[in-house]
């Protein structure tokens, strides 16, 4: 669920503007999973643009507090959300931790880096939601430490049915600044894509694992 439509449209606009989201319906990308995709999203680029990162940071901080109340800790999912998560925590005057995909093999063998105490209320920050598996893995690691995960806030989601199912099964509330539907609407309105390309992009989102441009 998006926090609100105006923020969703503005977020989509700035992500397209800095090429954090690239749309290429005629020459698809290949994801690490092997999926062919007419879209590629790298929201870490936000960190390189001070005005835009401040906008994203402020919108996440404001909407997290409006939606979940002020938590005790902000947790970022490594590695993509470490930067923006720490900025959100700073904006809210809160401690920050981040969660690795797996525990380190050496040293203290931490999966969670930073100070975290049992019973604390935590909101998780993500940069991007695709299937949701890595994000929910971070939630499970936090729950193992006996904290209360109030929900997750992300910059963008593809809105796959699989991710919706995964979050529903784990009973984790997800809100995002923008999503795929709003992105396509904004891209069409601002001339990033035409009507023919819109049809290709819409078809991909319905069945991304089996999609083929032909």
Offer a concise description of the structure.
With 214 residues, the protein is an alpha/beta fold.
Question: Could you spell the SSE succession in H and E letters?
Answer: HEEEEHEHEEEHEHEHH
The order of strands across the largest sheet is: 7-6-5-8-9-10
Individual helix count: 7
Low-confidence parts? none
**SS class:** alpha/beta
**What would CATH call the class?**
Alpha Beta
Task: Report the radius of gyration as a whole number of Å.
Answer: 17 Å
Number of strands: 10
Total separate domains: 1
Let me know the average pLDDT: 94
Write the layout of secondary structure elements.
Blueprint: H1 5-17, E1 21-23, E2 29-30, E3 36-37, E4 39-41, H2 50-68, E5 73-77, H3 82-92, E6 96-99, E7 112-113, E8 121-129, H4 133-144, E9 148-157, H5 161-169, E10 174-179, H6 180-189, H7 195-206
Parallel strand pairs: 5-6, 5-8, 8-9, 9-10
Antiparallel strand pairs: 1-4, 2-3, 6-7
Helix pairs in contact: 1-6, 2-3, 6-7
Question: Features of this protein?
Answer:
two-stranded antiparallel ribbon, 10 strands, Rossmann fold, 6-stranded mixed β-sheet, 214 residues, 7 helices, alpha/beta
Care to describe what's here?
This protein is an alpha/beta fold and 214 residues long. The protein has helices at residues 5-17, 50-68, 82-92, 133-144, 161-169, 180-189, 195-206; strands at residues 21-23, 29-30, 36-37, 39-41, 73-77, 96-99, 112-113, 121-129, 148-157, 174-179. It has a single domain, classed as 3-Layer(aba) Sandwich (Rossmann fold). 40% of the residues lie in helices and 21% in strands. Strands 7-6-5-8-9-10 form a six-stranded mixed sheet, sandwiched between helices. A two-stranded antiparallel sheet has the order 1-4. α1 crosses α6. The two termini are 31 Å apart. The relative contact order is 0.18.
